[in-house]
């Protein structure tokens, strides 16, 4: 039996509930496929600060350095003040340069856009999210947009490599180079240079505001969207609405040494502890994690069961039109695994 050591960050709000449900499902699938998981649990954010005096405890950093893979529940990020985003800090610390967000319809779930299958590949460390901002004079704040040749080339290479490996047909670079001619212009030049090495993949470019309109009018014209950090953050949330919202879509932050898989929705403190949260987003993130650690059969076992539960529609959570709770949904997925 193979054993994998994984750092678990339960998160706050609904985080402990959805992460608990996902761990139970993953362990059940692992038992059936002779895979064992050793969870190293650490928290981050306000709760961690109360206990350790650090928003990201040293022990958490050390755990990720040791395991090289983490599964992370939602952590609250204060708006307009408070501590720095835990997500951004972890991405920068471990140089998780690629944010990978597949958006795919679940069977049986009725939405305005059926049969969606999109991939958003977002540069994860630069742009405005580099966090370089300061007060120039009272009432004036300057934020610096950072785009580098290294970062742009690296994320473009990731997108095209993924497209070739998985048989995706086209890549659109999303930009605002008509206005930001130097920064977004550099990003586009790097994307074009990489695209030349993949002649079998159709390459195109859309200005970000037009891309948002095009997505709403006809999302089926896209396959992989390759973006800078801020544009990708916005577009990936927009695309999640095509399949039912952020409670359903997975996310991965990938680097050369480490990877963190996370639910991209918020911590929803208003429903915390009420057995109402939908664990689908974190569960599908765990599926991505299992593929990453080369446990494909375990991943497919979970994905097949999850899709069966949605196809039957009998044990869904309230956010997708059902009446079941977090625990009941998790039990249904486990039952569907046989």
TrEMBL record:
<feature type="domain" description="Isopropylmalate dehydrogenase-like">
    <location>
        <begin position="5"/>
        <end position="333"/>
    </location>
</feature>
<dbReference type="Pfam" id="PF00180">
    <property type="entry name" value="Iso_dh"/>
</dbReference>
<comment type="similarity">
    <text>Belongs to the isocitrate and isopropylmalate dehydrogenases family.</text>
</comment>
<dbReference type="GO" id="GO:0004449">
    <property type="term" value="F:isocitrate dehydrogenase (NAD+) activity"/>
</dbReference>
<dbReference type="GO" id="GO:0051287">
    <property type="term" value="F:NAD binding"/>
</dbReference>
<dbReference type="GO" id="GO:0006102">
    <property type="term" value="P:isocitrate metabolic process"/>
</dbReference>
<keyword id="KW-0560">Oxidoreductase</keyword>
<dbReference type="GO" id="GO:0000287">
    <property type="term" value="F:magnesium ion binding"/>
</dbReference>
<dbReference type="InterPro" id="IPR019818">
    <property type="entry name" value="IsoCit/isopropylmalate_DH_CS"/>
</dbReference>
<dbReference type="GO" id="GO:0006099">
    <property type="term" value="P:tricarboxylic acid cycle"/>
</dbReference>
<protein>
    <submittedName>
        <fullName>Isocitrate/isopropylmalate family dehydrogenase</fullName>
    </submittedName>
</protein>
<dbReference type="InterPro" id="IPR024084">
    <property type="entry name" value="IsoPropMal-DH-like_dom"/>
</dbReference>
